[in-house]
Amino acid sequence: MLGWPDVDLLAVTTNSDDGGRRAGYARYALDLAGRGDVPVAAGADVALGRYRVTPGLPREADYWPAPIPPAPGPLDRALDLLEDSIARGATIVAIGPCTNLALLEERSPGILHRARLALMGGYLFPPREGFPSWGPEMDWNLQVDVESALRVLQSADPTLVPLSVTVETFLRRAHLDALRSAGPLARLIARQAEAFARDEGNEERYGRVCAGLPDDTINFQHDPLACAVALGWREGVEIETLPLVTTVEGGWLRQRVGEGGAPTRVVTRVDADAFAALWLSLVQ
User: Cβ-count burial of 56 within 10 angstroms (0-12 exposed, 13-18 middle, 19+ buried)?
Assistant: First the structure.
C-alpha cells in the first residue's frame, strides 16, 4: 500500500494484539519506510477473551533485527481512528479478525453500513484442484472470532477476498534476491520470509505437492491481494456479486450461495502471476 500511486494511508489498527506487541511491529515497519506520520493504534487484545484460540506471535529474535518496544494504548483510540476514516470516506481493509469492526459497530450502531470495506476472508467454495485442499476451518480471519465476523457481515456491505482465491497467490524464494537488493522494508520482508520458510516448511508442504503452485512457494499473499482489490486492482481478478447466506453452526461460520442471501461482492478468480509481478514491483 505504501508503494501504490496516489494512495493516502490514514491509519493502521491491530487486532488480536498482545499488550501492544503487534502495534509495535506495525510502528517499526512504518518508521522503517519513512512513514512516521501514519498513526498506529493497538486494537482488540487477546485479553478480551473474544478469540477461539489465543493467537500467538513467532519468536521475535528470528523475525526482527532488534527488540521492538510494544505500543499499547486504549482500545478506543483504535476505534476512533476507524470511525474517523469511515467519516472521511476511506476504504477500510480488514486483513485480520473482525473484532475491531464489530466493537465499533457496538459502540456506534449503523456505522458499518456507511463503510467502504474489503475483508480478507470468507469461504464459499473450496480451492481449485492443484491448490491446498483447505476447508472453511482454515479461514482464520473469520473463524477465530465468529461472533464479530457475523456481526460485520450482517452490518456492512463488504467486498470479500476469500481464502479459496488467496491460496492461489504466492511469495516465492525466487523473489527474495530482489527484495534483499531493495529498500529497508523490502529487506525486512526478505528476512521474515526466510524465517517463515524455516518455521512453516511450505515449500515441502505445498509448493512441491500442489501442481498449481511454484515449487519454491514460501507463503501465500492473502493480505496483499485483499489490499490490491481494495485499492481498485481489477486487471488480474474477477469479482462477482453473489447472494450470500451466512450462519453460525456448531460454533463455526458457514457461508453459502442461496436464495434470499445478501448480495455480496466476492473475488472468484485471480491471475496469480500478474499479482506476484505487481506486488514485487510495489514493495521494491
Answer: exposed
Tell the residue number behind the cell numbers 480471519, with chain if given: 141
What are the tens digits of pLDDT across the range 74-121? 999 999 999 999 999 999 999 999 999 999 999 999 999 999 999 999
Compute the residue count for the chain: 284
DSSP 107-134: HSTTGGGG-EEEEE---SSPPPTTS---
For residues 164 and 135, give the distance between their C-alpha atoms in angstroms, rounded to a whole number. 9
pLDDT digits (tens, 9 = 90+) for 182-226: 999 999 999 999 999 999 999 999 999 999 999 999 999 999 999
CATH of the domain at 86: 3.90.245.10
| DSSP classification of residue 158 | P
How many other C-beta atoms are found inside a 10 Å radius of the C-beta of residue 87?
11
What's the whole-model pTM score? 0.96
The number of domains in the chain is 1
Residue 76 grid cell: 478506543
Distance of CA 215 to the CA centre of its chain: 24
Domain coverage including residue 108: 75-169+220-283
* CA-angle at 18, arms to 12 and 21, nearest 5°: 55
